C-alpha cells in the first residue's frame, strides 16, 4: 500500500485527542495531583510526597485485595477460556442453529452488570432464591452471605455465566473464518479430531484468543459491580477485590490521597500485566515463524 | 490405483430435488480406467467440483453408486477410499514446517519414519522445495504453499486416485507450465489414476489423455483432445474448446445442403435429423479459407495475435471468426469457403448423426 505523508493529517485526530484528553488524561492527572497531597477538606491541600504510595504498598489490606483479585482473574481465565473454546467448537456452522446459538450466547452480554448482580443475588438466596433453596433442600448448607467459599463460588460462577459468551463469540468468529477446504484436506490427510484442533483450529483462533484473554483479564481485574451487588465484598473481606476496596477507601472513608495513590498503583499493575500478556503471547507467535 | 466406476450418479444439494433442473449434477454413468489421466473441463458452476467431491467422498451422491475396482465405496469416507485431493486454494498447516506438512498424511497413517523421510524428500525434490524443508509454512508465498498442497497430495504411495480441483489457479503462469509437466511426468512414472478439474482448456488438453467436458451439470463429451477439437459432439464443446471457438450459425437443411441466408453450403452427406429442433452449422475458424472465391463476407476487425491473424467478420448477418496465417493477404472484397469435412451439423445443440457418413458414438 502506498503511504502519503502529510502533516495536516494530524488535525484529523485532533477531535479524538481532545475527547481522550477530557475523558482520560485530565482525570488521570487530577488523580496524580491528589495522590501527592493531603487535605482536611475546605479545599486546602498540603504536599505529601510519596507518603500515600508508601502507605498503600505497605498495607496488608492492599496486598490481600491484590492477591484476591489475581486469584479471581486466574480462576475465571482458567475456566472461561477452555470452556469458551469448547462451546465455540461445538456450535453449528450452518443452518437455523447459527442465529439461535448466537442470540443465546449474546444474551448474558446484553444484561447490565448490576442487573446480573441482582439476578444472582436473588438466585442464590437461601429463602427465596431458586439456586440457594434447591441446594439447601439437597442437604448442602449453601449460604453465600456467611460462607466465604460459597461467596467465591457464587461470584465465579456468575462471572463465568456472564462472560464466557464473549470468549465463545470471539473464538467462533475465528473458527468460521476457516475455509471448508482446510477440513476437507485434513480428512483426506487422515488427521484425527485432535490434530484438526491442534493444527488448524487453534492456530486460526490464536489472534482472537489473545484478544479474549486480554479483555477477560482486564475486565476481571477491574471487576466491581457484580460482586458488589451480590456480596458487597463480604462475608468479611473475602470478596473485596481491588476496585471494591478502592471505592470503600475513596467514597466510604473519603481518604482521597491514599485512594488516589492506590488508583495509580492499580492502573500501573493492569498496564504492566496486560503488557506482559501481550508480549508473551505475541512473542510465542513470532518464535514459531 | 484403481478403476473408478460411476453408476448412474446424480446429485442435488437440496433434499427435495424433483425436476431435472434441481440437480447440480445430472446423471453420470461412466468408467474411469485405472491409471488414466482425466481432465474435467467446464465453466464455473457446471458441476465439475461436485463430481470430483463425489469421487473423493466429501459428498455422498443423491442417487447412484461409485465403485473402485468393482467394490462399492459409495458410503465410505474419504479416508477409507484412500484418495488424495488437492484443492483450489492452498491448504497448509501454518504451525508446521514444510517437511512436517508433507509428512502429515503419512504420519497420520502410521507409516514408518524412515519411509516418511524417503517419500517426503522425493516430493521436496520434485516440487523444488528442498531448500526450505525446515522453514515454517506460514510465511511462504501462495505459489510455495500450493506446491506444499500438491506435494501432500502426491506423497502417499498407495492411493487409489489423486484428484486435483483447479490446483494451479493461484500459481504464476511460468510456474504453471513447470508444475503441469512435473505432474504429467509423475503420472507417467506412477500410473496413478488422476482426475484434474479445470476451466482452462490449455491445462486440460495438455494434462489429460481423456478430457471430460461438462456443461450445466452434465457431461457433454468425453474424448481425446483431438476428438474434442475435430468432432465436438455438442455446440458447447465447439465454442468452449479452441481459441477462438467454433463458429456456430443457424441454418436450414435441405438434403445434403445447408442454406444460410441466400447461400448454399454443400455437405458431405445428408444429416439425419429427428424432429424440428434448432438446426445449427458449426465450423472451426481454422477450417475456413479466406480468399477471392466463395461466399462474400463483411470484415469488421482483424486481430493480430502473433503467428496468426483472427478475422472477425459477418457472414449472411451472423458473426464469424476466421483464422488466417500471419502473412496471408486479406482481400478487400473477401470471400470464404468452408472445408467440407470440417463442417458439423447440430440439432438442438447436439451433433446430428451421419453428416460425414460416420456413426456418432
TrEMBL record, chain A:
<comment type="similarity">
    <text>Belongs to the binding-protein-dependent transport system permease family.</text>
</comment>
<feature type="transmembrane region" description="Helical">
    <location>
        <begin position="70"/>
        <end position="89"/>
    </location>
</feature>
<keyword id="KW-1133">Transmembrane helix</keyword>
<feature type="transmembrane region" description="Helical">
    <location>
        <begin position="101"/>
        <end position="123"/>
    </location>
</feature>
<keyword id="KW-0472">Membrane</keyword>
<dbReference type="GO" id="GO:0005886">
    <property type="term" value="C:plasma membrane"/>
</dbReference>
<protein>
    <submittedName>
        <fullName>Glycerol transport system permease protein</fullName>
    </submittedName>
</protein>
<dbReference type="InterPro" id="IPR035906">
    <property type="entry name" value="MetI-like_sf"/>
</dbReference>
<feature type="transmembrane region" description="Helical">
    <location>
        <begin position="259"/>
        <end position="280"/>
    </location>
</feature>
<dbReference type="GO" id="GO:0055085">
    <property type="term" value="P:transmembrane transport"/>
</dbReference>
<feature type="domain" description="ABC transmembrane type-1">
    <location>
        <begin position="66"/>
        <end position="277"/>
    </location>
</feature>
<dbReference type="Pfam" id="PF00528">
    <property type="entry name" value="BPD_transp_1"/>
</dbReference>
<dbReference type="InterPro" id="IPR052730">
    <property type="entry name" value="Sugar_ABC_transporter"/>
</dbReference>
<keyword id="KW-0813">Transport</keyword>
<feature type="transmembrane region" description="Helical">
    <location>
        <begin position="208"/>
        <end position="225"/>
    </location>
</feature>
<keyword id="KW-0812">Transmembrane</keyword>
<dbReference type="InterPro" id="IPR000515">
    <property type="entry name" value="MetI-like"/>
</dbReference>
<feature type="transmembrane region" description="Helical">
    <location>
        <begin position="160"/>
        <end position="183"/>
    </location>
</feature>
TrEMBL record, chain B:
<dbReference type="InterPro" id="IPR047641">
    <property type="entry name" value="ABC_transpr_MalK/UgpC-like"/>
</dbReference>
<keyword id="KW-0813">Transport</keyword>
<keyword id="KW-0472">Membrane</keyword>
<dbReference type="GO" id="GO:0055052">
    <property type="term" value="C:ATP-binding cassette (ABC) transporter complex, substrate-binding subunit-containing"/>
</dbReference>
<dbReference type="InterPro" id="IPR012340">
    <property type="entry name" value="NA-bd_OB-fold"/>
</dbReference>
<protein>
    <submittedName>
        <fullName>Glycerol transport system ATP-binding protein</fullName>
    </submittedName>
</protein>
<keyword id="KW-1003">Cell membrane</keyword>
<keyword id="KW-0067">ATP-binding</keyword>
<keyword id="KW-0997">Cell inner membrane</keyword>
<dbReference type="InterPro" id="IPR003593">
    <property type="entry name" value="AAA+_ATPase"/>
</dbReference>
<dbReference type="InterPro" id="IPR015853">
    <property type="entry name" value="ABC_transpr_FbpC"/>
</dbReference>
<dbReference type="InterPro" id="IPR003439">
    <property type="entry name" value="ABC_transporter-like_ATP-bd"/>
</dbReference>
<comment type="similarity">
    <text>Belongs to the ABC transporter superfamily.</text>
</comment>
<keyword id="KW-0547">Nucleotide-binding</keyword>
<dbReference type="GO" id="GO:0005524">
    <property type="term" value="F:ATP binding"/>
</dbReference>
<dbReference type="Pfam" id="PF00005">
    <property type="entry name" value="ABC_tran"/>
</dbReference>
<dbReference type="GO" id="GO:0016887">
    <property type="term" value="F:ATP hydrolysis activity"/>
</dbReference>
<dbReference type="GO" id="GO:0015408">
    <property type="term" value="F:ABC-type ferric iron transporter activity"/>
</dbReference>
<dbReference type="InterPro" id="IPR008995">
    <property type="entry name" value="Mo/tungstate-bd_C_term_dom"/>
</dbReference>
<feature type="domain" description="ABC transporter">
    <location>
        <begin position="4"/>
        <end position="241"/>
    </location>
</feature>
<dbReference type="InterPro" id="IPR027417">
    <property type="entry name" value="P-loop_NTPase"/>
</dbReference>
